């Protein structure tokens, strides 16, 4: 450019100094350490807006859209939050434009979830970029399987297992997809404190859940589903990750096809 247009074509005052720490897209980046953080003022602003909506008798569509806008940084840095934000965006799109009204019970649950998450601001400080790119190396592996009678989860690191026998009504009403996902939730709630306490570094623990059902794997990774039982399990799984400073990913057990075949069988209570 300087060769063609001359030395005055480049205004050096418009260029910033090269640095490994910068602010871009509303986030704080540390390229040398490989971390990204959400500014504290954005977390406080989002928490305040969420609390105002929860405590309001009625609210407007504009207030919901403004709150969702404050939560976009949380969803950018947290996989679990994306599904909840999608649900809130759907709520905003169907909300009356000129007539304030009460939020639905499901929307209030979603905002309560965000408020509980935002009370842990340290979770959004120095987030490894590997977690955002889904290339984090697992520090623990958990293996699980489910049958028509019960479930079993193995934790090789601690040499422990969880076994649960289903009640007769659960065995009839719950699909194999939900039963497989319950294994992941139980493992997270039971071993979460141990995983958090075993970390000798400031980096969060990354746990890979080996599940034999593709639907449960997808629900666990994406944290979204139209199945009400799967939504409940996601609401249990996601806050546990924040509380214990642990990230989770799910992978399908190679060669495990029987659970998938069972999930596709005609079933009254299976969605």
Which secondary structure elements does this structure contain, and how are they paired or packed?
Blueprint: H1 2-5, E1 21-24, E2 27-30, E3 35-37, H2 40-55, H3 61-70, H4 72-77, H5 79-94, H6 105-118, E4 127-128, H7 129-132, E5 140-146, E6 150-155, E7 160-165, H8 168-173, H9 176-198, E8 205-211, H10 214-222, H11 228-243, E9 246-252, H12 258-263
Parallel strand pairs: 5-8, 8-9
Antiparallel strand pairs: 1-2, 2-3, 3-4, 5-6, 6-7
What does this structure look like?
- The chain is of the alpha+beta class.
- It folds into two domains: 37-129, no CATH class; 136-263, Ribonuclease H-like superfamily/Ribonuclease H (Nucleotidyltransferase, domain 5, 2-Layer Sandwich), CATH 3.30.420.
- The protein has helices spanning 2-5, 40-55, 61-70, 72-77, 79-94, 105-118, 129-132, 168-173, 176-198, 214-222, 228-243, 258-263; strands at 21-24, 27-30, 35-37, 127-128, 140-146, 150-155, 160-165, 205-211, 246-252.
- The chain has a five-stranded mixed sheet with strand order 7-6-5-8-9. The chain has a four-stranded antiparallel sheet with strand order 1-2-3-4.
- Strand 5 and strand 6 (150-155) form a beta hairpin.
- Helix 2 (40-55) runs antiparallel to helix 3 (61-70) and helix 3 (61-70) packs antiparallel against helix 5.
- The protein is globular and about 80 Å long.
- It starts with a helix and ends in an 8-residue tail after the last helix.
- Residues 262-271 have low confidence and may be disordered.
